[in-house]
Design a protein that fits this description.
126 residues, mainly alpha, 8% strand
């Protein structure tokens, strides 16, 4: 081969901007999807079958979420799409009421340094 790809040898060549319609941010509300945010299909939401504006990538994400709750990172890996694209598509699905997203629990705040020093001093006294 001389390094050129033809037809099926090239594989899928859909660019991310084509999938998202050129958008780079999820929805008009500027929702942020952390990589560990959990996504689940909203059972009370609108019926995705009756939604003509959903593309094949939207439907693929819904299918992945339907079987079990998935994180944004897992969805990107399973759908074989860049995380930025998945975030934009999830924004569409969230706005249409097809999915629910639970935000990750913020990490616990560390105890005050003074308390840690008192604990260490107490342990040394034993």
């Amino acid at each position: 081969m001389d390094g050129q790809w033809y037809d099926a040898d090239a594989g899928p060549l859909v660019r991310p901007y084509a999938v998202t319609g050129g958008r780079t941010k999820p929805g008009p509300h500027g929702v942020r999807f952390d990589l560990i945010a959990l996504v689940v299909v909203d059972a009370d939401g609108a019926d995705p079958a009756g939604e003509p504006l959903l593309g094949p990538e939207h439907r693929a994400l819904l299918g992945l979420c339907r079987s079990e709750t998935q994180s944004v990172a897992e969805l990107a890996a399973e759908a074989d799409l860049p995380v930025g694209v998945v975030r934009v598509l999830l924004g569409d699905l969230l706005e249409a009421g097809h999915v629910r997203v639970s935000r990750p629990v913020p990490p616990a705040t560390l105890p005050d340094e003074r308390i840690l020093r008192e604990v260490i001093e107490g342990l040394r006294a034993l």
